[in-house]
Amino acid sequence: MPRVTIDDRTLEVAAGTNLVDAAAAAGVQIPHYCYHPRLSVVGQCRMCMVEVEGMPKLQAACSTPVVKDGMVVRTQSPAAVEAQRAIMEFLLINHPLDCPICDQAGECGLQDYSFKHGQAFSRFRFEEKRVYPEKERIPLGPTVMLNMNRCIQCTRCVRFTEEVSKTGEIGFFNRGSHAEIGTVEGRPLDNPLSTCVVDICPVGALTSTRFRFAERVWYLDKKPSLCTGCDAGCNITLEHRRGSIKRYKPRYNAEVNDYWMCDFGRGTHERYRDEPRLLSPLVRKNDELAPASWREAIDALFQAVRAKRADGVTAFLGSGFLTTEEAFLLAQLARLVESPHLSVWTDSGPARQIPNPRGGVSGREAAPNRRGAEWAGLVPGADGLDGENLLLEGGADRCAALFVADSDFGKAARDPRVVERLRKARFLAVMGWADTPLARAADVVLPAATHAEREGTFVNSQSRLQRFTRAFPAPSQARPGVEILAELLGRFEPRWGSVDAATAFDLLAEEVDRFAELRWHSLPPQGVSLAAREAPEGAA
Amino acid sequence: MASERVLTRNVGRAAARTVRGYREGGGYEALSRALRMQPAEVVEEIKKSGLRGRGGAGFPCGMKWSFVPRNIDKPKYIVCNADESEPGTFKDRLLMEHDPHQLLEGCVIAGWAVGASTTYIYIRGEYTVATAILEEAIRDAYDQGVLGASVLGSGFRHDIHVHRGAGAYICGEETGLLESLEGKRGQPRVKPPFPAVVGAFGCPTVINNVETLCCVTHIVQRGAEWFKAIGTDERNTGPKLYAVSGHVERPGTYEHPIGITFRELLDSCGGMYKGRALKAWIPGGASAAMLTAADVDTQLDFDTLAKAGSMLGSAAVIVMDETTCVVRATLRLAEFFAHESCGQCTPCREGTNWMRILLERIASGHGAERDLDLLASVVPNVGGISLCALGDAAQGPVKSLLAKFGDEIRDNLRQRRYPLPQVPFFDLGAVA
Fold first, then answer.
1. Which is the most buried residue in A118, A255, B203, B348, by most CB within 10 A?
2. Which residues of A fall within a CB distance of 8 Å from B347?
3. Same domain, A328 and A246
4. Where a domain ends, among B301, B321, B341?
5. Which residue, A75, A91, A107, sits at the end of a domain?
């Protein structure tokens, strides 16, 4: 591999690596706007000019590959610094300085580089700035708003629709200082990945219709998380203010979603806001659900599942929204009461596809973790009742007690016929965050945390195990599922009482071959592929 | 100047537009000669002749051809750049309108030399007459077996297509031209890779100017030594067309050995218009730096002009007399570049427009000395760091304005002389 020296730091990079990436590997940031690692190199913003020894003119770092050994690059030479200053000046002479009302403020490439490479005064004093009349608020499609006056013509969005989404809605029109981006009449920007152009827009020209004006970005707390929209398992940054989620943004993971995520996924947090929450444990007394203490609720559930009853079996129905750890604990519960009736239900969703360098990741289910839940043990034993028996047939008739873990496991939780069918169980307990008709029909209701309020792991459609973190605490009396299940298990065997997600995962890894040798605290940030591991049939 | 007319020998001879008429003057002999040579020999001959590109950059033609990979499993293309859009330039039009077969012959020879079986002539959209003449000539050439499956019965296939541009200056830049040819938005590509390796449709491509290809015909016909004997020195060889416009008595296209002095060229055009004094002249189209009366004995070739701080470019000589406001003249050029910038890269998109604004302020009488200083500090940022040569081109005339006339402009600004009185170029009364 050729060696390259960038600002006196020498390193080896793969031949063909461009200087922006090589510098980043050396810990040197070269400012750039138009360059994006997943888009074709056009070298047109000219912000990344650097001095290369032996070349008479400054070179654009993005379009200069490291080919031969011994290249010497200076990013801070007087000529390079002057070029960066000049480009900043050129970009700003016609840029409206409307940062106070611009949604991008706080995460704007122009702001950031102004501080770093720009100057505090303008030499473009007497002339009117260029404006694009009536192009301050152009909806490019249902998800993206264009303010042409703020555009710096980097054409990342144009290249995204051409090269990544392959839909080609956005084009580059007109010439010179009138050059602009836009769509053709009758062909709006409308594709499943459209909001990604907002993420890659370095300025406030493209803003998200969904997010704009929802929050100033400097008030947002950002936590690494996972999208729960489907089983593609897109890595996201969950951005919230005091427990109110404002947006999901894709988080880079070349193995999974690369730099992208779909528009559907971005909206999946809205149900946490729009749907009623379960905030207190409820226990049915005199045929009416009434608020109760956690102790009362868990006692009632413990009594109902513990006793072997003559009038029927005890069944457990998990969902694809459970974390692997919760599913494992639920499976332990079934084991303790010697019930073979345990399973996972997941709605199948529309197929979603996120491109990545390895051919993309697809999601086909409407929940993030059916695989993980099943591999953690939620599979029916011999003659066990499964989701289909319970939801579509009269399986619940045979149940003395039925515990549905996740009140929002699928569309069926809101289907009155299904609720009626499940209600046939002599005792019905429901755990979950959403106040659904199913929860309302239960005898015991356990309010649980959303995925933003708990930590755990999901296994996506590529069999990749990924961990997500808690962004903020659950409101009121709601608790993470692991805590609830651990307390319940503790009534059987005290050793379970103090189990948290980390210990639950490590116990799971000891018990189930597929997870062998994995430890919660050493799970790599990009996840672990379980695909190559032996599939332990019917393990529990 | 009693030199032989080479490139323009058929100008005014209408019969030369047909294959038969062209042959009568010795046409297509060079092609049959080339077809009897090995392709590598043709390339070598061109290299030896010292022919440099006539489009503006002056890159050695033979060397350009030799960059095309020999053994490659892809078609190769010849692209003739006939998008003559540099302000002041009108030499290729003359060649195409009066002697289309001279160009076609050069194209086929180039095709034979690099192993290309297709030529695209990318012609400026406004050249409707030249387009019609070329297309007629191509039809004729197919009928006469000069083009098609077997060129002059040699078994070598060559096809020529004429592709009309839509009027953008930037499509004269070679990679902008290729984008446009491919049906895309005409804007330059990042180089490398250079067109000789990845050009039209991703295939190796040679892009030559009309005049360059016309020269090829004569080099093959009469030999590299003959060609080399014409001109200033080893690096500046052959006959050259100069397109003279502005304040001269007889503007037009003149053929001279490359490297005559500006004074000689001016004499051949009948001298300055109405005998007025020379103020400034541009030797090579709008992108070239202005020169003044002090430079009249400069030889008009690539190296001498480069040494003088300007360039031969397309050899479009624009002459301005004492009545000219040089700021307004430069503003006109700046307006052109601001209008023709493709808008892709930042320095050119924003810088050309800013230069235009500042020149307009000065020329219109609203400017002050600080505008001149500001202009001087903005200009160097426009070229040098732009994506293609348009940024460099745009700064050329402004830079020279500041260098050659800076003191004069400063003085005029102090004396509040702007706007200077405008003297109409043509005395319309005299015409009537």
1. B348
2. 46, 86-87, 90
3. no
4. B321
5. A91
Check CB contact of A119 with chain B, cutoff 8 Å. no
Q: Which residues pair with B235 in a beta bridge?
A: none
How many structural domains comprise chain A? 3
Claim to verify: residue B57 and residue B33 sit in the same structural domain: yes
In a domain, A103, yes or no: no
Q: Name chain A contacts of B384, Cβ cutoff 8 Å.
A: 57-58
| SS3 state at B68 | coil
Check CB contact under 8 Å for B354 and A41: no
CA distance B19 to chain A (A): 41
A contact test, residue of B180, B335, B345, B377 with most A CBs within 10 A: B345
> Are B224 and B81 contained in the same domain?
yes
Task: Locate the chain A residue with the closest alpha carbon to B370.
Answer: A123
The continuous run of DSSP H or E covering B171 comes out as none
**For residue A180, what is the nearest residue in chain B, using CA coordinates?**
B343
Based on the fold, state whether residues A428 and A513 are members of the same structural domain.
Answer: yes
Mean pLDDT for chain A overall: 94
Supply φ then ψ for residue B123, to 5 degrees.
-110, 140
Cα nearest neighbour of B345 on chain A: A44
Q: Provide the number of structural domains found in chain B.
A: 3
Residue B421: inside a domain: no
> Nearest by CB to A176, which of B185, B343, B385?
B343
Shared domain for B201 and B99, answered yes or no, is yes
DSSP B115: T
Strand, helix or coil for residue A28: coil
Q: Are residues B253 and B135 in the same domain?
A: no
Spell out the SS3 assignment of B253-280. Answer: EEEEECCCEHHHHHHHCCCEHHHCCEEE
What is the gyration radius of the CA atoms in chain B, in angstroms?
Answer: 22
For residue A539, pLDDT beyond 60: no
The verdict on B303 and B391 lying in the same domain is: no
Kindly determine whether residue A176 and residue B345, on different chains, have CB atoms separated by under 8 Å. no
Q: What residues of chain A lie within 8 A of the CB of B343, using their CB?
A: 153, 172, 174-179
Closest by Cβ to A177, choosing from B350, B381, B387: B350
Query: Which DSSP string do the residues of A227-253 spell out, in sequence order?
Result: --SSTT--EEEEEEETTEEEEEEE--B
In A, which residues are within 8 Å of B374 by CB distance? 123
Would you state the pLDDT for residue A181? 96
Beta carbons of A173 and A180 less than 8 angstroms apart? yes
- Of B219, B198, B201, the closest CA to residue B163 belongs to B201
What lies within 8 Å, CB to CB, of B173 at 6+ separation is B188, B388, B389, B390
**Domain of A140?**
126-274
Q: Do B190 and A63 touch (CB under 8 A)?
A: yes
What are the pLDDT digits (tens) for B20-72? 999 999 999 999 999 999 999 999 999 999 999 999 889 999 999 999 998 89
- The residues near B183 (Cβ < 8 Å, ≥ 6 apart) are none
Whether A324 is covered by a domain: the verdict is yes
How distant is the Cα of A96 from the closest Cα of chain B, in angstroms? Answer: 14
CATH assignment of the domain containing B109: 3.40.50.11540
What is the reported pTM?
Answer: 0.93
How far is the C-alpha of B100 from the C-alpha of B213, rounded, in Å?
A: 11
- Are A445 and A525 in the same domain? yes
Can you tell me the ipTM of this complex? 0.92
Asked if the structure places residue A358 within a domain, the reply is no
Q: Which helix (H) or strand (E) holds A178?
A: none
What tens digit of pLDDT does each residue of A411-424 get?
Answer: 999 999 999 999 99
Chain B residues with CB-CB distance to A83 below 8 A:
381, 385
Going across the sheet that includes A342-345, the strands are A288-291, A282-285, A444-447, A427-432, A399-405, A313-319, A342-345
Regarding whether B242 and B313 lie in a shared domain, the answer is yes
Range of the structural domain that residue B388 is part of: 326-414
